[in-house]
Structure formats: structure tokens, C-alpha cells
Design a protein that fits this description.
This protein has 450 residues and is an alpha/beta fold. The chain folds into three domains: 108 residues, Methylthiotransferase, N-terminal domain (Rossmann fold); 236 residues, tm_1862 like domain (pyruvate-formate lyase- activating enzyme, Alpha-Beta Horseshoe); 61 residues, Nucleic acid-binding proteins (OB fold (Dihydrolipoamide Acetyltransferase, E2P)), CATH 2.40.50.140. The chain contains twelve helices and 20 strands. The C terminus is likely disordered. Helices cover 31% and strands 22% of the residues. The strands form six sheets. It has a five-stranded parallel sheet with strand order 2-1-3-4-5, sandwiched between helices.
Length: 450
């Protein structure tokens, strides 16, 4: 159980799930810090523990329920929020002791529940002043969430049930936040949402006044404006709508990074139709070829699902053939898991677990060879690297084609690089997923995607 409260109440926080949930955690912590709460380093020193959960797939639900159970066992006073909070009955069936349950991005409800459990101290800021934003990422990069929810109805996904329909932030608010982050030392902004390409559709692309002009709430215009801030701009979760082609000129002129995170999910028309996803794989290959013709150093990452209900060996072979033709740079693969409430649960033709496992290994083996081939082609070239950490041999960083935690690393030999700096380095060799390079020069503080 928790110890006697200190003079300033302390809140323990457990954040699970994707970067979008991480941003939710940052916003809650920002509110709490502004209200005068301190953060606890462990369960024992916390007056109450908040668990921000994930509920996207069954394994994530199990992890979240286990985290709630651990917090109850170690502290006793637990508030649950996040995606799993959208199913409160499920939580209370397992953990009836929780003090309160709120759904995702319900910041006011979370703070109210915390105040009910532990009265708020005196605020740490004066009335009218802006709260100091809490970031859970290193100082040199930050996630910039531009919308909540999703209007797609993929049969394997329950995000619309958990997080609601698309709700885009006003573009002025997004740009103001981005400016504050860059002014505070952030050198890389990772733009995230459930469906980045759909940004602004729900608010009819309503414009905001920014830097003396109107900017529409549309992904192309947003990316163009963000490119003026000088930071690296990296786009995630870009659904392959036709207007994604409009982002390519922004990469050509260096306003945003030559990087696209596009969740293709499969290549078989039959499987894509069952998934309720776009099913024009030939056209997609043409678009990829056109993108790379215009931006030769473009990095494309994607995710795929194997073992989806009804997936045949022929369907899977088609996916492997598509991957060989597409030569994507970075690929993540998931073995299909049923999700409570998803339409895919009703589909016939369930794939046995051993077949899912075998297909996963075959796909990852094929992609490993593709990745190794594409990285080997970079040997002898000079690349730009943002430094994430220092080590005995020099530094560890990421190229413009590498997002933190999900893509590869660049191991840079040489002195004088600092965490958060951007350097030029010559690639000496590679393996299946990472690069090794020799430091050429540390770039001045001036930023830019070029």
C-alpha cells in the first residue's frame, strides 16, 4: 500500500501502447504538474497510480490488465485511463478495486479522478500563465498529434469504437504547439494520428491564421507549414489516399523528411477486401515507383498482417511477390489476433497458429534480405544523422529514414557529436537493419531537412 502522503502529492504513471497514447500521457502529466502535483518514481512513493492502457488487440489488453494488477498489488490506489478504459466492465471484472476508469484522451475526467483520490495542492503557476509542457521523449524529438479517432472501418480494428470518429485539431493549434516545441530545442517532429492523410476532413479543412496567412487544415498544407520551422518533419500512419502524392514535392525541396509510413497491411485483393482496405496493389507499385523516381532517397516503411481469416497460401505468396517488387525499406509484421468487437471475428477460414507463425517467419526472412540489400547500397554515401545517445565508440543515431524505436540505428564513429545534434557521416558498412558510419562534421545549430 502507498506510504503516508508527502507534503506535495505524488502521482505514479504507467504509460502503455503507441505514441498516440504517449501524447495523451504527456498532456495529463502537463495538467497535473500545472496543478502542483509531483511525479512519483516508483509505486511505493506514489499517492495514487494512473495506468494509461492499450486495448487494440487481445495481447495488448492482457498486458494492460496485468499492469493494472501490478499497480494494485504494489500501491492499492489505481486510476485507469486509455483505450482499455472504453470497456470498463472488462476492467472491473478483473480488478474491481480500481478507483476510477476513463476512456482515451479524456484528460478532464482523469484529472478529476486524481483530485478525488488525492486533493490538489496549490498550483505551481500563476493564473493565466501557460503550463510547462511535460514531454516523455528525449528533448531533441517529440510526437505531434494532429487528430484523434478514425473514420475507417477496417474489419480487424476497433479504434473507432475506442477512440471515436476522426476529430482533427485546428491547424493553428497544431502549428503553435510545433513552434513551442522547436523553440524549446526539439529538432525532430514526428507527426502522428490514427489516419494522418485524413487530417482536417471532419472540419472541412478549416483554415487558421498563421504567420500572416491562412493555412488550411489539410495534411499537405500542414506539412508545408511545419517545414518552415526548420526541424525534421516525419510523417507517420499515412493512409495511401491519392493526395499523398502531393507530399512528394515537399520532400523534393527538403521541407519534410523523405519518409513515408504507410500501413499497406497486405497485397492480396481478396485479403484486402476482407480487411476492408484499399485493394489496388498494382497501382500502389506504380505510385511507389513514381515517388522514388522523384525522391530517390525516399524511405518507405509499412506494416502487414499475416494469417488473416481466409488468407490462403496463394494469397500469402502474392504478398511475398509484392514485397519483392515494392522493395520497402522498413517492414513490421503482425500475426493476426482476434480483437473483441472486431468484424473480422465473424469471417470464416481461420488460419491455424502454426501456419501464422510459419508465414511470419517467411515474410520477415524475405524482408530481412530486402532491407540488407537496400542498406548495403548506402555504403560510401554521406548521410545526415540525428544523435540519440553517446557510446564508447562515438554515438548512436538515426538517419532521415529511421524513426525512433521502430526503425534502424546508425552507429557513428568519431568524437564531438552531442545528443540532439545533427551530423554528416560517411557510411562504412551495414547489416540487415543498421548502418555504421564515420563522422564527417557536426552541423551548426541551424536546422532544416535538406
Amino acid at each position: 500500500m502507498a506510504k503516508h502522503p508527502p507534503t506535495t502529492p505524488r502521482i505514479g504513471f504507467v504509460s502503455l501502447g503507441c505514441p498516440k497514447a504517449l501524447v495523451d500521457s504527456e498532456r495529463i502529466l502537463t495538467r497535473l504538474r500545472a496543478d502542483g502535483y509531483d511525479m512519483a518514481a516508483d509505486y511505493d512513493s506514489a499517492d495514487v497510480v494512473v495506468v494509461n492502457t492499450c486495448g487494440f488487440i487481445d495481447s495488448a489488453r492482457d498486458e494492460s490488465l496485468a499492469a493494472i494488477g501490478e499497480a494494485i498489488a504494489e500501491n492499492g490506489k489505481v486510476i485507469v485511463t486509455g483505450c482499455l478504459g472504453a470497456t470498463p466492465d472488462l476492467i472491473r471484472e478483473t480488478h474491481a478495486e480500481v478507483l476510477a476508469i476513463t476512456g482515451p484522451h479524456q484528460y478532464d475526467a482523469v484529472v478529476s479522478a486524481i483530485r478525488a483520490a488525492v486533493p490538489a495542492p496549490q498550483p505551481t503557476r500563476s493564473a493565466g500563465s501557460a503550463p510547462l509542457e511535460v514531454k516523455l521523449t528525449p528533448p531533441h524529438f517529440a510526437y505531434l498529434k494532429i487528430s484523434e479517432g478514425c473514420n475507417n472501418r477496417c474489419s480487424f480494428c476497433i479504434i473507432p469504437q475506442l477512440r471515436g470518429r476522426l476529430a482533427s485539431r485546428p491547424v493553428g493549434d497544431v502549428l503553435d504547439e510545433a513552434e513551442r516545441l522547436v523553440a524549446g530545442g526539439v529538432r525532430e517532429l514526428l507527426v502522428i494520428s490514427q489516419d494522418t492523410s485524413a487530417y482536417g476532413a471532419d472540419i472541412r479543412y478549416a483554415p487558421s491564421r498563421w504567420r500572416g496567412r491562412d493555412v488550411r487544415a489539410r495534411v499537405t498544407e500542414l506539412a508545408d507549414a511545419l517545414g518552415e520551422l526548420g526541424a525534421w518533419i516525419r510523417l507517420h500512419y499515412v493512409y495511401p489516399y491519392p493526395h499523398v502524392d502531393e507530399l512528394i514535392p515537399l520532400m523534393e525541396c527538403g521541407k519534410i523528411l523523405p519518409y513515408l509510413d504507410v500501413p499497406f497491411q497486405h497485397a492480396s485483393r481478396t485479403v484486402l477486401k476482407a480487411m476492408r482496405r484499399p485493394a489496388a496493389e498494382a497501382r500502389t507499385l506504380e505510385r511507389i515507383a513514381t515517388w522514388r523516381e522523384r525522391v530517390p532517397d525516399l524511405t518507405i516503411r509499412s506494416t502487414f498482417i499475416v494469417g488473416f481469416p481466409g488468407e490462403t497460401e496463394a494469397n500469402f505468396e502474392q504478398l511475398l511477390e509484392w514485397l519483392e517488387a515494392a522493395e520497402l525499406d522498413r517492414v513490421g509484421c503482425f500475426k493476426y489476433e482476434p480483437v473483441a468487437g472486431a468484424k473480422a471475428n465473424e469471417l470464416p477460414g481461420g488460419v491455424p497458429d502454426d501456419v501464422k507463425d510459419e508465414r511470419w517467419h517467411r515474410l520477415m526472412s524475405a524482408q530481412r534480405a530486402i532491407s540488407a540489400r537496400r542498406l548495403a547500397a548506402k555504403t560510401g554515401t554521406t548521410i545526415r544523422v540525428i544523435i540519440d545517445a553517446l557510446c564508447d565508440e562515438g554515438a548512436i543515431g538515426r538517419a532521415m529514414g529511421d524513426a525512433p524505436e521502430i526503425d534502424g540505428n546508425v552507429y557513428v564513429a568519431g568524437d564531438h557529436a552531442e545528443v540532439g545534434s545533427i551530423v554528416s557521416a560517411r557510411v562504412t558498412h551495414s547489416d540487415d537493419y543498421d548502418l555504421w558510419a564515420q563522422l564527417v562534421e557536426v552541423e551548426p545549430d541551424g536546422l532544416g531537412a535538406h
